[in-house]
Records
---
Amino acid sequence: MAGVISVAGYLAFLAAVTVLPLAPVAALRETSAIFGTVLGAVVFREEFGLLRISAASLATAGIVALALSTA
């Protein structure tokens, strides 16, 4: 099931890139890593230590940089 969802998500990404600018679509796609981190900490009670906080912060900074580069 996860494989089917993964392929469907990638196909949706490819479809979006054909009609929209790449930077905002790529930024939106990369937010899944942040959502996965938050879900892991909240739902599965995983540790949310300094390493995960710094990784999520770097990912957020990259998303913001991509979004601002199109403005």
Note: The longest helix spans residues 22-42.
---
Amino acid sequence: MAQTSTEPAAGRIRLDKWLWAARFYKTRSLAAQAIEAGQVKVDDERVKPAHAVKVGMQVALRKQALSWVVEVTALSDKRGGAPDAARLYRETEESVRVREEAIAARKAALVNAPTISGRPTKRQRRKLQEFLDEA
């Protein structure tokens, strides 16, 4: 995606708009909240949602238990499809490796986790009560 900015300075765009256009957050307000909470850093510094993003800057963000470190490759204030959004940044190899390890660890933990399907049935409650009464 080419540089499609309607901002007065065509080489800059607000950080919250860029994060929204790059599809890291569903809304600009969610992006702004994440920035204010310190979950997004530009060149290892906390910034405000209106911080101007330029091509070549490094953006680090945390979302839930995952983190990304990306380099800005293009600017856009329009939210497009996923292929268009992927052209706005390039993720570092270290970031990809760390994120994939975290996803693999999360999946491994889910395999061994007990599955609880809601409230126990009447039969299960009786068996549990019998077990507790034996002691």
Note: The longest strand covers residues 66-72.
